[in-house]
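Checklist before submission:
- one chain only
- standard amino acids only
- sequence pasted in full

Submission:
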Amino acid sequence: MFVFSNLLMAFAKILDIVLTTYMWIIIARAILSWVNPDPYNPIVRFLYSITEPILYAIRRRIPASFGGIDFSPMIVILVLLFLQNFLVPSLKEMALVLRA
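Returned file contents:
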């Protein structure tokens, strides 16, 4: 059973890294929205292509724009933080229980 426990622990760590990375990508996208970036820059295009599907889904379901300010990145960051603080520790705890 320790093999499944180790697998679950590794999955929790990878999920934590992915969620942290995506959170920083969302933050970079939000900062880029404050300036007028070159839309043909490959980094800008990458950031927009990887974040726009999630942000668009939030914008479509929740009117997250007040006074010209788009709050959808903040909503996504809050969801990511919730997943990091709930799902990742739960997976780690489950792995520790399976090890015993």
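Reviewer check: The first helix runs from residue 2 to 34.
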